[in-house]
Write a structure and sequence with these properties.
Elements lengths: L15 E6 L11 E6 L11 E10 L4 H10 L11 H11 L1 H13 L16 E4 L18 E7 L14 E7 L1
Length: 176
């Protein structure tokens, strides 16, 4: 394959924190993702001494081809939170038998399970902070009195709340 260079010119309409990722094969699952920060043309109105990017993503040591193949053969292969008969009875008691039956019969017609949103869970993936696994304990260093600008990007429907911080932050820019 010949090596080529491409130059893309993209008009920047809005500054902010974004992420880049590939839509080719399983490049995203093998780590081809990252933060993309588009800075303001004019000087930022918020004074800060240091800035950090907080980028949350996921990772698996299982070959993404294997995960894909497993899910194609059985869509709930990695889903360990399947509904039980006890769940069915509890729902029927709360919602009524007819609506519960209707709901449960609708899922197979859609070729989905009621818990399909969690088709690949933390049992398969680990979650990374700036590319570091939880046991690596990524740390943003700062000195007392420094003003920090934090760019925060939550990726792949990973829900994280940043409600309090020991840092006196100058600003938080967040997109999810």
């Amino acid at each position: 394959m010949r090596r080529k260079t491409f130059l893309y010119r993209i008009p920047v309409v809005q500054n902010g924190t974004y992420w880049y990722h590939s839509h080719s094969r399983f490049q995203e699952q093998t780590g081809l993702v990252g933060a993309l920060i588009v800075e303001r043309r004019e000087k930022d109105s918020i004074e800060f001494d240091k800035e950090y990017v907080v980028f949350l993503s996921d990772w698996t040591d299982i070959n993404p081809e294997t995960i894909f193949s497993n899910l194609k053969q059985q869509s709930d292969y990695y889903n360990y939170h399947r509904l039980t008969f006890r769940d069915f009875l509890s729902e029927a008691k709360k919602e009524g038998l007819r609506p519960t039956m209707s709901d449960h019969l609708a899922w197979p017609r859609m070729n989905m399970s009621p818990a399909d949103i969690s088709d690949v869970t933390g049992a398969t993936y680990t979650y990374l902070l700036n590319g570091h696994a939880p046991n690596a304990n990524w740390t943003g260093l700062f000195q007392p009195g420094e003003r920090i600008l934090r760019h925060q990007r939550v990726v792949k429907c990973l829900t994280v709340l940043f409600t309090s911080s020991p840092l006196p932050l100058a600003s938080i820019e967040s997109t999810a």
